[in-house]
Amino acid sequence: MSEARLQLANAPCSWGTLEFAGLGGGQVPYARMLDELVESGYVGTELGDWGYMPTEPGQLRQAITGRGLSLRGAFVPVALSEESAHEEGLARAVRTALLLSRAGDSEDPPLLVLADANGRVPQRVWNAGRITPDLGLSMRQWETVALGAASIAQGVLNQTGLRTVFHHHCAGYVETPEEIARLLAMTDPQLLGLVFDTGHYVYGSGNQEVSVLEGLEAFGDRVWYVHFKDCHPAVARHARTEGLGYFEAVEKGLFCELGQGCVDFARVLSWLHKRAYDGWIVVEQDVLPGMGSPKESAERNRRYMRLLGL
Q: Cα(217)–Cα(220) distance, rounded to whole angstroms?
């Protein structure tokens, strides 16, 4: 089997543009962010929060392709366990996917990145990284989640032609390996893929010694997209021991620069090559105000990936 050709992108969250109110601080203007992303050696980007980049397709396309970049995806959180939120969630997902489809590359289409509406349920926020079964959903709620995810993915496909991947994410209802497996088992593998996020998988497992390869082996057939995010073991241990909430842990540097945490990216890359994965890798590091320079972190992360041969 020949090795896959992997391409490397980054995302606005690495410049402090996060989907959670109160975490982002002052935003770096999108044009500067894109310029710095290119200068750091990446060839793709995600959209970021709705309205951060232009929402007029022609303007967005020019901003992306004019810099030689590829538009790879956009994160859309929906409160999937609440049936009443599905219709509005579908509308936002389709709106976002239409922009992606019109501004993106038809030969290498972007993906709609669907997630549970992380950060809405205090119990899940305060227990992220140490979720126990009693904090999870009932079977009826799981059926609602699966139905919502499937209907949104189908609606996006029907109306825009784009595929949808699900992002397992800490502080939401699909965080632990068991929860990821439950959602995938209840949805159509041809309709809904998985964006495998290395950092969220490690922290969400609740196990300090967990191997990312366990998740890749378990869910590999559904992996259509990959986020490279590292997880600092000392911060994770402190957060779990002291009972810190998700946002507190992130603010303390939970998701550190690549190579500074516990994710074995060399083995992840080896797995991707062996599986002939031909999708994109998106580097993400939640750089918040006061945590350092986003561009310098992006450059160091890019150098680290070069050391691994990418």
A: 5
Q: Does the model's pTM come out above 0.90?
A: yes
Instruction: Look up the domain containing 219 and give its range.
Output: 7-307
Q: How many helices (H) and strands (E) does the chain have?
A: 12, 8
Pairwise CA distance, residues 307 & 50, whole Å: 34
Here the CATH number for the domain that contains residue 290 is 3.20.20.150
Q: Which of 303, 183, 202, 209 is nearest to 254 (CA)?
A: 202
Residue 42's contacts (CB-CB under 8 Å, 6 or more residues apart) are 8, 9, 10, 69, 283, 298, 302
CA 29 to chain centre: 21
Q: Residue with structure tokens 């601080």?
A: 25
Q: 237-292 pLDDT, tens per residue?
A: 999 999 999 999 999 999 999 999 999 999 999 999 999 999 999 999 876 655 66
Per the structure, the count of domains in the chain is 1
For tokens 């992996």, what's the residue? 223
